[in-house]
């Protein structure tokens, strides 16, 4: 601390700490990266509140209806990076009515007004229109990062506006969105002088892209680190693109299939050999294993491999993955089968995250030999494994208990046994013991999804042991209200609870109403709820928004329905913004 | 039933009366479910929990929830014959048999099915693959990709090999119709395959050949009349006929 300031009396001590100017606190808070820590600091006293909120640079709004955009902009005027999430998670599986809401427009409008220096904007599960994108391009002169995940409502026209208007764009990251193709050559709208791109991900785009324009763009953006192509780029063009961007760190190949031609193979091999920095690889590879060896030179360096859209199977796949000794993240289809996972277990000891997706989710027979065996092997041999998403058709309690013993360091464990109510296939018992073992052993578990035949017993274990659990997904499980009661009265850290097709009724909901305000949201669909309970809940808890959704065709004013009317879908979330005004006719706020 | 104090036929009547009542109850609830009286909602709730939620007095405290649990199993209405095992032991095996948006109706039919008509549930094989909405939890984006890939696979089930016979040739050949983009390529390929036989035949002076094929109905058709795609989907066999026969 230098001298100066009116407080510098000669014999006095340094100014009392609570009288330090705001800038000092702002600087101190800049060392708190986690928003929760900053929030805690802001709660200490008025001056810290003022200093913290005025200097907050990154804002994450996990539920777009928890606060109004105007509130957010007013409270945090210096935000440079904002992330907003909209629809409930189950919208991914079609359970949320299509016109439910989560429009990005009010957020973009408020940001345009209050955050002119905004640099980063990220939307997840929201409706983003072309007008939103045009407004973004026009309002923020230093806009750098646009990330849209699982959004919809926009087209290539909006992308054109971004390309043309955002002079300093560094990242354009489009993940799994539904983008309408207006046949606009949006890529050509990046001006020739534009060279700042670091990330370009248009893998979800269905239409064609002008390859020459793409090549020129890639050539002049020398800092390009992430390039994820869509299915329209043929293999020979991939080779030439890679030659122009050998500095690439993350590559999404788009469609990787063609008839085998030795000269194309040689071209690809040479191109990949030049990519010494390549660490992350993904793509929709169709069954042409002949080209896999072209990748062999990059396998050693790969830390992340996403083959979850790749339909290759068999020994070539295993040979390929076995060479990737430094893998930390692996996403595959169940075509890898148990023996493939055994190979992964022995080769990829640094694995931290594994996801196995079903190749044919609706086939009841299940042609693919992927069972509990694969997961047991991987959990036994990969000491750093902490996150799992696993779709399979059979499971045993013994396997789960073994997995729990081998891997107490799970933070995310999501097991989906494809057929609902499937018991332990050897003992025909419910899988309570297995899932309980997981939750008792993995003290750091923050995300958990259960499936198979389950009674209330498993929920008793979860309620009692899952102290750090933040997100829980339940489907076709439990046998009485007690199940839900165990969860809501336990699970100290629970933030998001989503339930479908379980025999849970009104009582546990009302008995644990206060708990709901400590959580971000609760989703219950196809359970045993009645409208009367929702009304009571809404009356009792004014800071919760209680949304009720029934069959979309039958919009019916709530007032005319009796308390006994069953409720098909319930979504409850805490909010300081009051009831929202943009509900469609199939959604009613109680 | 205290059989000792009553003549045996009465206990039989009582037993069958209970049975009858049970069936009657099933019949009643299946036919006149209360929810059907409501104007807007036609998805029936699982019978057991529905019964529970309306029969118990409303109580909010946690401790009463615990007590309820004990009493609950005693009062729980079982849709099984007296003497059937408790719900925990009963191996539940419902398959999502009913179509979209009807997951609960499915559980209802399953619950009632495992009662007196215990065999029925196993006998009714799952009808054509109707699915529960949003299950398994695969993202819509991924589902579309799978469906597209599956549809493509259905269109192109690998090679389409058909036999090719040539009159006078000692043995037949096989060609993969998917390897060719059109009739010209097919003709060139057949020329290449049968050069020797053609050369031999030429010595006999006959240069005219017609390519014919046998279609799904078994009729012999001249190659070249229909569009290529239609041709490869209907062609079962190829036959190279000598000019004299073709006329």
UniProtKB/TrEMBL annotation, chain A:
<dbReference type="GO" id="GO:0009734">
    <property type="term" value="P:auxin-activated signaling pathway"/>
</dbReference>
<feature type="domain" description="COI1 F-box">
    <location>
        <begin position="20"/>
        <end position="57"/>
    </location>
</feature>
<dbReference type="InterPro" id="IPR036047">
    <property type="entry name" value="F-box-like_dom_sf"/>
</dbReference>
<keyword id="KW-0539">Nucleus</keyword>
<dbReference type="Pfam" id="PF13516">
    <property type="entry name" value="LRR_6"/>
</dbReference>
<dbReference type="InterPro" id="IPR001611">
    <property type="entry name" value="Leu-rich_rpt"/>
</dbReference>
<dbReference type="Pfam" id="PF18791">
    <property type="entry name" value="Transp_inhibit"/>
</dbReference>
<dbReference type="InterPro" id="IPR041567">
    <property type="entry name" value="COI1_F-box"/>
</dbReference>
<dbReference type="InterPro" id="IPR032675">
    <property type="entry name" value="LRR_dom_sf"/>
</dbReference>
<dbReference type="InterPro" id="IPR006553">
    <property type="entry name" value="Leu-rich_rpt_Cys-con_subtyp"/>
</dbReference>
<protein>
    <recommendedName>
        <fullName>F-box domain-containing protein</fullName>
    </recommendedName>
</protein>
<feature type="domain" description="Transport inhibitor response 1">
    <location>
        <begin position="77"/>
        <end position="123"/>
    </location>
</feature>
<comment type="subunit">
    <text>Part of a SCF (SKP1-cullin-F-box) protein ligase complex. May interact with auxin and auxin-responsive proteins.</text>
</comment>
<dbReference type="GO" id="GO:0031146">
    <property type="term" value="P:SCF-dependent proteasomal ubiquitin-dependent protein catabolic process"/>
</dbReference>
<keyword id="KW-0833">Ubl conjugation pathway</keyword>
<dbReference type="InterPro" id="IPR041101">
    <property type="entry name" value="Transp_inhibit"/>
</dbReference>
<comment type="pathway">
    <text>Protein modification; protein ubiquitination.</text>
</comment>
<dbReference type="GO" id="GO:0019005">
    <property type="term" value="C:SCF ubiquitin ligase complex"/>
</dbReference>
<dbReference type="GO" id="GO:0005634">
    <property type="term" value="C:nucleus"/>
</dbReference>
<dbReference type="Pfam" id="PF18511">
    <property type="entry name" value="F-box_5"/>
</dbReference>
<keyword id="KW-0927">Auxin signaling pathway</keyword>
Automatic annotation (TrEMBL), chain B:
<keyword id="KW-0804">Transcription</keyword>
<dbReference type="Pfam" id="PF02309">
    <property type="entry name" value="AUX_IAA"/>
</dbReference>
<dbReference type="InterPro" id="IPR033389">
    <property type="entry name" value="AUX/IAA_dom"/>
</dbReference>
<dbReference type="InterPro" id="IPR003311">
    <property type="entry name" value="AUX_IAA"/>
</dbReference>
<dbReference type="GO" id="GO:0005634">
    <property type="term" value="C:nucleus"/>
</dbReference>
<keyword id="KW-0678">Repressor</keyword>
<dbReference type="GO" id="GO:0009734">
    <property type="term" value="P:auxin-activated signaling pathway"/>
</dbReference>
<protein>
    <recommendedName>
        <fullName>Auxin-responsive protein</fullName>
    </recommendedName>
</protein>
<feature type="domain" description="PB1">
    <location>
        <begin position="159"/>
        <end position="243"/>
    </location>
</feature>
<keyword id="KW-0805">Transcription regulation</keyword>
<keyword id="KW-0927">Auxin signaling pathway</keyword>
<comment type="similarity">
    <text>Belongs to the Aux/IAA family.</text>
</comment>
<comment type="function">
    <text>Aux/IAA proteins are short-lived transcriptional factors that function as repressors of early auxin response genes at low auxin concentrations.</text>
</comment>
<dbReference type="GO" id="GO:0006355">
    <property type="term" value="P:regulation of DNA-templated transcription"/>
</dbReference>
<feature type="region of interest" description="Disordered">
    <location>
        <begin position="79"/>
        <end position="133"/>
    </location>
</feature>
<comment type="subunit">
    <text>Homodimers and heterodimers.</text>
</comment>
<keyword id="KW-0539">Nucleus</keyword>
<dbReference type="InterPro" id="IPR053793">
    <property type="entry name" value="PB1-like"/>
</dbReference>
């Amino acid at each position: 601390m230098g001298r100066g300031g009116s407080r510098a009396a000669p014999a006095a001590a340094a100014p009392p700490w609570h009288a330090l100017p705001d800038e000092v606190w702002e600087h101190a808070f800049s060392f708190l990266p986690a928003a929760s820590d900053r929030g805690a600091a802001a709660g200490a006293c008025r001056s810290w509140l003022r200093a913290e909120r005025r200097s907050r640079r990154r804002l994450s709004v996990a539920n777009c209806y928890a606060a109004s955009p105007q509130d957010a902009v007013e409270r945090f005027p210096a935000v440079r990076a904002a992330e907003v999430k909209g629809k409930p998670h189950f919208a991914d599986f079609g359970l949320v009515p299509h016109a439910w809401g989560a429009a990005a427009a009010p957020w973009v409008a408020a940001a345009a007004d209050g955050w002119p220096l905004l640099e980063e904007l990220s939307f997840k599960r929201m409706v983003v229109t072309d007008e939103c994108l045009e407004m973004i391009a026009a309002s923020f002169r230093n806009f750098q990062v646009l990330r849209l995940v699982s959004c919809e409502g926009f087209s290539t026209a909006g992308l054109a506006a971004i390309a043309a208007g955002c002079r300093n764009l560094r990242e354009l990251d489009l993940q799994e969105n539904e983008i309408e193709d207006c046949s606009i050559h949006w890529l050509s709208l990046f001006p020739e002088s534009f060279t700042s791109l670091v990330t370009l991900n248009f893998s979800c785009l269905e239409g064609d892209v002008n390859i020459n324009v793409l090549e020129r763009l890639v050539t002049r953006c020398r800092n390009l680190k992430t390039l994820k192509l869509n299915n329209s780029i043929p293999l020979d063009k991939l080779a030439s693109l890679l030659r122009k961007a050998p500095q690439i760190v993350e590559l999404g190949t788009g469609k990787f299939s063609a008839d085998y031609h030795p000269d194309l193979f040689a071209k690809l091999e040479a191109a990949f050999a030049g990519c010494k920095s390549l660490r992350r690889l993904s793509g929709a590879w169709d069954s042409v294993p002949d080209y896999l060896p072209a990748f062999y030179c990059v396998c050693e360096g790969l830390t992340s491999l996403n083959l979850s859209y790749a339909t290759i199977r068999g020994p070539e796949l295993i040979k390929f993955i076995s060479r990737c000794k430094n893998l930390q993240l692996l996403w595959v289809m169940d075509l890898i089968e148990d023996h493939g996972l055994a190979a992964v277990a022995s080769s990829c000891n640094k694995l931290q995250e594994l996801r196995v997706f079903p190749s044919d989710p609706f086939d009841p027979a299940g042609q693919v030999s992927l069972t509990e065996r694969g997961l047991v092997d991987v959990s036994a041999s990969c000491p750093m494994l902490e996150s799992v998403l696993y779709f399979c058709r059979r499971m045993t309690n013994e396997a789960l208990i073994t997995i729990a013993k081998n891997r107490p360091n799970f933070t995310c464990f999501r097991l989906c046994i494809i057929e609902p109510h499937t018991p332990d296939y050897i003992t025909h018992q419910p899988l309570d013991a297995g899932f309980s073992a997981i939750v008792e052993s993995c003290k750091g578990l923050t995300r958990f999804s259960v499936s198979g035949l389950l009674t209330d017993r498993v929920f008793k274990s979860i309620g009692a042991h899952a102290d750090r659990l933040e997100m829980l997904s339940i489907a076709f499980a439990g046998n009485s209200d007690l199940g839900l009661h165990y969860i809501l009265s336990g699970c100290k850290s629970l933030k998001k609870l989503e339930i479908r097709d379980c025999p849970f009724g009104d009582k546990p909901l009302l008995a644990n109403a206060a708990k709901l305000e400590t959580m971000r949201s609760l989703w219950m669909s196809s359970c045993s709820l009645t409208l009367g309970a929702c009304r009571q809940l809404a009356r009792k808890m004014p800071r919760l928004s209680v949304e009720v959704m029934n069959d979309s065709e039958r919009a019916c004013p709530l007032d005319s329905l009796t308390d006994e009317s069953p409720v098909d879908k319930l979504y409850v979330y805490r909010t300081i913004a009051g009831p929202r005004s943009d509900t469609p006719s199939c959604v009613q706020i109680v | 039933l205290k059989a000792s104090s009553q003549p045996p036929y009465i206990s039989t009547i009582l037993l069958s009366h209970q049975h009858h009542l049970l069936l009657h109850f099933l019949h009643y609830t299946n036919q006149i479910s209360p929810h059907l009286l409501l104007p807007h909602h036609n998805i029936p709730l699982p019978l057991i929990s529905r019964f529970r939620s309306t029969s118990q007095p409303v109580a909010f405290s946690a401790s009463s929830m615990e007590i309820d649990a004990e009493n609950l199993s005693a009062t729980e209405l079982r849709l099984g014959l007296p003497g059937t095992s408790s719900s925990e032991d009963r191996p539940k095996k419902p398959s999502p048999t009913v179509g979209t948006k009807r997951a609960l109706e499915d559980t209802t039919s399953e619950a009632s099915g495992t009662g007196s008509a215990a065999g029925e549930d196993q006998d009714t094989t799952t009808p054509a693959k109707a699915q529960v909405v949003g299950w398994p939890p695969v993202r819509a984006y991924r589902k579309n990709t799978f469906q597209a890939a599956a549809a493509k696979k259905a269109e192109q089930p690998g090679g389409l090999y058909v036999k090719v016979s040539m009159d006078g040739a000692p043995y037949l050949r096989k060609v993969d119709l998917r390897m060719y983009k059109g009739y010209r390529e097919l003709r060139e390929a057949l020329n290449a395959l049968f050069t020797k036989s053609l050369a031999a035949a030429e010595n006999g002076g006959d240069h005219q050949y017609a390519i014919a094929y046998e279609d799904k109905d078994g009729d012999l058709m001249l190659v070249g009349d229909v569009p290529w795609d239609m041709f490869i989907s209907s062609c079962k066999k190829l036959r190279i006929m000598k000019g004299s026969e073709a006329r």
